[in-house]
Amino acid sequence: MGIKGFQGTSLLDFPGRIASLVFWGGCNLTCPFCHNSTLVLDPEAYPDLDPAELLADLAERKSFIDGIVVSGGEPTLDSGLLPFLKDVKSLGLAVKLDTNGLAPQVIAELIDRQLIDFLAIDLKTTPERYHELHSGVVSADKFIETLRLCADAPVELEYRTTCVPGWVDEDVVVKLGELIDGAPLWVLQQYHPEHALCAEAQEVTPYSSEQIQSFAEIASRYAQRVIVRGV
Ligand code: SF4
């Protein structure tokens, strides 16, 4: 748990904004295809960053950044997230949260308190298979609760799916599309197996760009805008 990484400036991770990236350690999933395996499996390999020092750094940068991206790991697991974001917002910075969506209560509270401006929620596979993403208990109901509460949330919203063979195919795209029907933005990403958490997932051959484009065509029946990344 805790803040484990900081990157001062990024143009890529917060659409339309220049942002700093803040990474949390730990996760409530162990997706075989995860590309942040050390942050997930061994967060203590990284020293905790002091939130007060980070806030001082952000205060110095606020003249040339628009906001921060909160990513991980899974940041919603840390009770220190809310007070940290309160301080970030008091600096006048926008906040984007990257989440797997398994903590709807936390996400609802952050929305209610106007502590996030942009939400990026992973759609990894159908909810029926979420239990396969971790050796412990995974509540797909909580994931669906997050999708419901975010449908009308007063924040910018992006759903993201990494197109991992074996986890995402045409049927999965249809089922996920039905869950987020009418969503403003759905991003389909190419899978890069090199740093996957599980050895088997490192051996998976990614889909061709044509195949991902065909997934995007299906996705466009459900989302107002579909973007393909990484192909
Ligand atoms: S892919 Fe995301 S949700 Fe899955 S283990 Fe990695 S950080 Fe956690």
Poorly predicted tracts of residues = none
Bound molecules: iron/sulfur cluster
Specify the structural class: alpha/beta
Rg estimate, integer Å: 17 Å
Largest sheet descriptor: 8 strands, mixed
What's this entry about, in short?
The chain is an alpha/beta fold and 231 residues long.
Describe this structure in words.
The protein is an alpha/beta fold. 31% of the residues lie in helices and 20% in strands. It has 8 helices and 8 strands. The chain has an 8-stranded mixed β-sheet, covered by helices on one side. α6 links the parallel β6 and β7 (186-190). α4 runs parallel beside α5 and α6 runs parallel beside α8 (209-219). The protein starts with a strand and ends with a strand. The structure holds iron/sulfur cluster (SF4). Iron/sulfur cluster (SF4) binds at residues 27, 29-31, 34, 36, 40, 72-74, 100.
Key features of this structure:
231 residues; alpha/beta; single chain; binds iron/sulfur cluster
Q: Layout of SSEs?
A:
Layout: E1 3-10, E2 19-24, H1 37-41, H2 51-61, E3 67-71, H3 81-90, E4 94-99, H4 104-112, E5 118-122, H5 140-151, E6 156-163, H6 170-179, E7 186-190, H7 199-202, H8 209-219, E8 226-229
Parallel strand pairs: 2-3, 3-4, 4-5, 5-6, 6-7, 7-8
Antiparallel strand pairs: 1-2
Helix pairs in contact: 4-5, 6-8
Bound molecules: iron/sulfur cluster (SF4).
Iron/sulfur cluster binds at residues 27, 29-31, 34, 36, 40, 72-74, 100.
